[in-house]
Every structure is written in structure tokens, then in C-alpha cells.
Amino acid sequence: MSIDPAFLGRREITTADDMERLGFVIGEQLVAGDLLVLTGPLGAGKTTFTRGLAEGLGVRGPVQSPTFVIARTHPSLVGRAPLVHADAYRLGSAAELDDLDVDLAGSVVVIEWGREMAPAIADAWWDIEIERPVGGDEELDDEDLDADAPRVVTIDRVARAPTTLER
Questions:
Q1: Which segments of the chain does DSSP mark as H helices, in order?
Q2: In the structure, what pLDDT confidence band is assigned to residue 135 with cuts at 50, 70 and 90?
Q3: What is the pLDDT of residue 131?
Q4: How does DSSP classify residue 166?
Q5: How far apart are CA 53 and CA 27, in angstroms?
């Protein structure tokens, strides 16, 4: 897996432009077979991050939330791996994700809302959690929840534990 270990851990991202820039720098490093699982509440910046990642990877856009189409494939414009951007929110199980027949080995795959499903489809992945202020935050008015409020991004490398049969 190809993300520089210097990106592991927590960092504060203060604007949408900074979120896109983080995605861009990570996208430049990715290769076919990389799987990234993005977790965070609605409006956290998952698609904004992926838009930057797509630009860094050099794939055709535009990158939009795949919520209603479940998955979109963005072919490379520069001879690198394509990007598959999937949204597992509406899927009931990892089997439904597997039914999409995503080329995990030949693509860079970003799955939003897929944390619980990742162990069923991959042995290792990048787990990226994006936290943002939510309703009830005393320092932020409700109408400002989607504004450029700071986000906290945590990037971890996760490896699936072997099952009893694999040991």
C-alpha cells in the first residue's frame, strides 16, 4: 500500500480547499490495488477529499457523490489506475458490495460508508475518518454546519485479522 507513513494519524483541516489538497497529495501516491475507506457524517468532506484524490490520481471527472448510483468509475487520463468511487450507505451487506464486481486489484477504490464491509473484501486498506462539528456544538450555529468549519482527519492503515480457517 502506497500512502507515505507521514500521513498517518490525526490532523486538522480548516477549509474545503485544504481537504481537497490533502486528497490531491494522497492521490498522487496511490496505485492500483489501494483501497481507501472513508467514514464521517453527512457533509464531513468525504466527496471533497475524493475530488482532490481524483485530481492527484489523474482521472476523468467530475467526481460527485455516488450515493444514488452506488459506484462510479473514473478512467485515468494519464496512464495510471482508474478510480472507483463507491458509496456503501445504501448497501445491506458486504455481499452486495462484492456483487458490484469492482476491480479491486486493478483500480484505486474509495468506498464511503464502508468500514464494516471492508474486512469482507480486502486484507488491508486505508481507513480515513473525517470528523466535523454536528448539531448541538455550542460554538457553532446550525446554519453554519456545512460552512468551512474545521474537520479532523484521521488516517490509519488497517489489516484484517485472519479468520480461524486462515490460520
A1: 16-29, 46-57, 94-99, 118-121
A2: low
A3: 95
A4: G
A5: 4
